[in-house]
Amino acid sequence: MRYLRNVAAAAHLDARFAALSDPNRRKILLRLVKGEATAGELAAPLPMSQPAVSRHLKVLEQAGLIVRRVDGQRRPCRLAAGALDDLDGYLAQLRAAVETQYAGLDQLLQQMAEPPRRRRRT
Known about the structure:
CATH topology of the largest domain: Arc Repressor Mutant, subunit A
Number of strands: 2
Order of helices and strands: HHHHEEH
Helix content: 55-70%
Distance between the termini: 66 Å
CATH architecture of the largest domain: Orthogonal Bundle
Shape: elongated
Number of domains: 2
Structural class: mainly alpha
Strand content: under 5%
Strand order of the largest sheet: 1-2
C-alpha cells in the first residue's frame, strides 16, 4: 500500500512540475498572488486569447495549483491553499542530499590540502 501512495505522490509531483514548466502558467500564478481573477482578467496582459488562458487554467487546476469557484456566470480562480507544500518537501529532501554531498566533498578537499604527515624515525 505504501508503494501505491508513493506512486500517486510521484504522479502528483510530476503534474505540478509539468504545470510549472510553462512560463505563461507561471505568469498566471504570479498574477493570482494578488487575488482572485477570471480567465478574461488573466488574459488581458498576456499575448494570448482567453480560450488559451482557459486551457492553461485547466492544467493548473488539474495539478492542484489553483481552485475555481462558480459566481453566477463568472468562474474566478485563486491559488490553492497548501498547493506547494509537497513541492517544498520534495525540494527540501533534494537540498539536504546535495548539502550532505557537498559537505563530504569539502571534507575530502580539506584532507587533500593538508600536508602529508612525516613519520619520525627512531
